[in-house]
Task: inverse folding
């Protein structure tokens, strides 16, 4: 339940400049890591948006992507993580956009 409150607070904290700014990825984009050291290398993630973290774990309101990492074998399932937030700069530098159908929930063909 605490996680839901944290997510609600983060979503509430979105400022107008963030909502209007242009970033490498937009809500709904499908991406994959290019960095082999990432735990979800060779998998895909759907971008859930760009947010500004204002909690005590981050400094100076870091920008983050909310990512829903796909896992499993068709049909895909979302990989649930305690904190689906990833540093915007790291994601931009270590991922690339892929076709949206790769993040589809039904990969059974």
Result:
């Amino acid at each position: 339940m605490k996680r839901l409150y944290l997510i609600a607070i983060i979503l509430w904290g979105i400022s107008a400049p963030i909502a209007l700014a242009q970033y490498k990825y937009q809500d709904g984009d499908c991406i994959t890591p290019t960095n082999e050291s990432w735990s979800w290398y060779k998998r895909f993630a759907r971008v859930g948006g760009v947010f500004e973290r204002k909690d005590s774990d981050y400094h100076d309101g870091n920008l983050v992507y909310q990512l829903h990492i796909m896992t499993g074998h068709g049909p895909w399932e979302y990989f649930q993580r305690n904190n689906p937030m990833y540093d915007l700069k790291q994601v931009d530098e270590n991922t690339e956009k892929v076709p949206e159908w790769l993040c589809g929930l039904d990969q059974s063909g």
User: Anything to note?
Assistant: Residues 2-103 form one domain.
